[in-house]
Structures are given as C-alpha cells and as structure tokens.
Design brief:
Elements: H1 5-18, E1 23-31, E2 34-41, E3 46-50, E4 55-62, E5 64-69, E6 72-77, E7 81-83, E8 88-92, E9 96-103
Antiparallel strand pairs: 1-2, 2-9, 3-8, 4-7, 4-9, 5-6, 5-8
C-alpha cells in the first residue's frame, strides 16, 4: 500500500477546520497488531488523556502540539517523532496533523 501523507494531512486538516469538535481522524493502516492513524486538530483542540498501548509513537507532520505525560508537558514541533510510553494527552498549539502509530498485543 502506498499513501501520500501530505495529501492525507491536507484532507484531514480541512475536515477538522469544519468539524464541530475541531478534529478529524482516519485509520490509514491496520495490519495485525499494527495500527497507524492520521489525526488533524485545530489550534486549541485536545485529545483527553488516555492510556498508551504497549508500543506507540507520535509523529508531528504539521504544526505544533503539546504532549502531556505524567504531569509534565512537552512541546513537539513538526518533524518530531516521540515514543509514547505512558498515559498521555495531546493539545494542538497550532492547527496540527499527527501520525499515531500503535502496536497492540
């Protein structure tokens, strides 16, 4: 399977900008335990804190997000790839698009 992440980011950011909750997400790959999703968030939109799967990473494709984990916050700009090892939440500081990769056992 071949995907154009730039086109997906454009599509979902446009959808997020018109969505009532300011976000748009799409599962782009599901192969056994591997799942990858594109998630677009408008500035100020959050994904509430939730538990991390056994193996996960967050790659910022566009904009900037604030990642909260264990009571601390970390700003992630476009181009950043971050492992997710514990309970976390995400807030878009700018209109942003992320690629979430997760492996569930």
């Amino acid at each position: 399977m071949k995907l154009d992440l730039t086109a997906l980011a454009d599509e979902h950011l446009a959808a997020a900008r018109t969505a009532p909750h300011g976000r748009s997400a799409h599962l782009i790959m599901h192969d056994g335990v591997l799942r990858q999703s594109v998630i677009a968030l408008t500035a100020g939109t959050s994904l509430d804190e939730h538990n991390s799967p056994p193996a996960a990473s967050l790659q910022v494709l566009r904009g900037r997000v604030n990642l909260t984990m264990a009571g601390r916050a970390e700003e992630l700009p476009a181009g950043t790839l971050r492992m997710l090892t514990e309970r976390h939440g995400v807030t878009a500081l700018d209109d942003a698009v992320v690629l979430l990769t997760a492996v569930n056992d």
